[in-house]
């Protein structure tokens, strides 16, 4: 396990959205609306985009051919935050602006996602209530895979995340947060796409209702009586979903 004492001196931003590309925005929105997300902003002309929320997380979809997913942080002082992170040894792949006038800085391919710090008036960003309106329960984590847990774990700590829990068996994993998003980091040789994890008591009943409303499941986990208790699905843009039975 990596050294958990590392502390970042600054958080990445005051507001966050998860930015995801979609080749078919209408199809993507239908999938998420079935799960209880609502549209809070929309642009139907080029570029075609939509911002949605379930009040746990905020997602920003833009219609593009190239697939990507990233965490977009908004703050007023990009240059200061980038300097601190570079002093920690982190490298930015792309910057816009110069010196103290940076408007954007991006770290690409951090466990298959990008991390962007964008200059913006944070009072203009949508802040969720963190009282989930999702039909599939409580948002638990954005699940990310790693083949080098200790190295990637240390990077997340330098980015301002803290460890809520960790374990070494059956695989190395940790639950991390910066108070804006929950990240589940899991070591595996079988690379998978970033996935949203939702938990809820009586998940099987909810899943049956969602399926009757048109949700297509990729796999199910059944109890001894053959009843669905947990399941997985793939969103149209390629993001994974895990719907897990919760004990509480």
Question: Can you tell me about this structure?
Answer:
With 248 residues, the chain is of the alpha+beta class. The chain has two domains: 15-124, Roll (2,3-Dihydroxybiphenyl 1,2-Dioxygenase, domain 1); 138-245, Roll (2,3-Dihydroxybiphenyl 1,2-Dioxygenase, domain 1), CATH 3.10.180.10. The chain has helices spanning 25-34, 78-87, 149-158, 203-212, and strands at residues 15-22, 38-43, 49-53, 58-63, 69-75, 94-96, 104-110, 113-119, 138-146, 162-167, 173-177, 182-187, 195-200, 219-222, 228-234, 240-245. The two termini are 29 Å apart.
Span between N and C termini? Answer: 29 Å
Low-confidence stretches: 1-8
Strand composition percent: 35-45%
CATH-level-2 architecture of the largest domain: Roll
- Percent of residues in helices comes to 10-25%
